[in-house]
Amino acid sequence: MGDPSASSGGSRIGETLIDSARLHERVTELGAEISADYAGRDLVMIGVLKGALIFMADLMRELTVPCEIDLMAVSSYGSETDSSGVVRILKDLDTSISGRDVLVVEDIVDSGLTLQYLTRNLNARDPASLEVCALLTKPERRRVDTPIRYVGFEIPNRFAIGYGLDHGQRHRNLDYVAVLDQG
Fold this sequence. Notes:
Elements: E1 12-18, H1 20-37, E2 43-49, H2 53-62, E3 67-78, E4 83-91, E5 101-109, H3 113-123, E6 129-137, E7 150-154, E8 160-161, E9 177-181
Parallel strand pairs: 2-3, 2-5, 5-6, 6-7
Antiparallel strand pairs: 1-9, 3-4, 8-9
Helix pairs in contact: 1-2
């Protein structure tokens, strides 16, 4: 296995924003909070692919309440670093969420435009409730106010990689969150 900070397609792994131990600690805290809030309820967790996959897997292992999972894949049009808010669903749900308590699990909320589209789309399917859990948020980049019930960490406006987040499909496998150094 090579040096994880090695150059990859003109980019390098920069400073660590959140180390593995802190990620695990926060995911455990979120799991306890979600378990308390959803005790006795019919929970469906919806992971937004591909970035939320690792976070969602770790989060569900921390839950003490039964839950089902489903996955969605969405694509935002725009530049690599700036969403236009035009969203396309690439993979839709296999499960009906009508009358169910839904928790959308996101890796990162940046502008909020994709999440706004997604929550409107899912609310039209008549869930009993719909909440959002995001591992990371960038408040200074927010363009729309989309409520996020559970937040792992607020991070600065820098390109984050690791723990499911990628740059050109690389670096998802890191067990920590770092800054992409494009220098």
